[in-house]
Records
---
Amino acid sequence: MKIKLTSIIVDDQDSAVKFYTEVLGFVKKHDISMGEFKWLTVVSPEGPGDIELLLEPNKNPVLGGAEKNFQKALFDAGIPATVFFVGDIQKEYDRLKKLGVGFNKELTKAEWGITAVLDDTCGNLIQIHQLNN
């Protein structure tokens, strides 16, 4: 068993793909129209090409707003929706700050590594993490 696809709930797919590609540096893999929404995935240029991140709209009529409420609850509680690992967190943090990315938690050292938490502008907090060597 392996992970092929994981998703993150976003409040606007067009804004999300712009942020995740132009700011975070991911590469768009799929952009397939599905009526009002899209099957929209990005991949890491540094990672395996078979792991995709689905930018999932928070307006699924089948769920009746549950995903929007979940997204907001995580954000309001300060809980990151996901974690991205980086090799040099200081370099990545500085690069993102120069691009105007807002951080809800600045660089923080812990026994398991260094972390920071950013606002993805699409309704989520995202943690970046560097493991201790």
Note: The chain has a mean pLDDT of 94.
---
Amino acid sequence: MAFPIPLTSKMSGATPDQLRYWRTRGILRPEIEDEKSPYLYSFRDIVALRTLAWLRGDHSLQMIRRAFSTLSELDMVEHPASYTLVKLGKSIGVVDQNDPGQAIDLVREPGQITVGTLEDVFARFESHNRRVVDPLLHPRDGVEVNPSRLGGWPTITGTRVPFDVVASLIGDGSVPAEDVAFYYPDVSPQAARDALDFQRSIVGEAA
């Protein structure tokens, strides 16, 4: 599944300007389309970008770049979404794949094993510019993200119905939310309204 920039921005918490900067500086290039516009991101890209946005909330970009550089020095060269980066006080670490209860410091004491609290990048958080980022897996009660369903594209909770299909259906007012069930029996009126609210939030942030 390929995610356009507005939806990538909404789901990751990275602004379009940050996406552009991180792409041009080589911090994270989209793995689907990295040569020319329109740029399309994968779900793995979104997870990695969300991690960057979460770290950027209280760590400098220089420190984040150093953490990525240390990953390479430690031969951790898979896609960034393959690793769980965590905050270690004023440093950044990566979860030890052999012992999930420990993390390897990447910045202040590179290579040192540290025991720390592992925070959930998928939860709601606030970015460095005070932007509140929705929880990744449940951005709305009626909208969910299941990485194994439709490639991580947001769907109506408990269904395979894409959120944007429902949002488009009721967006112009021609189909009331209460009538969506005639088209999609598993979609409740509230879930339809949640889908439209999520769609409007994407458009609003992209404006």
Note: The chain is about 35% helix and 10% strand.
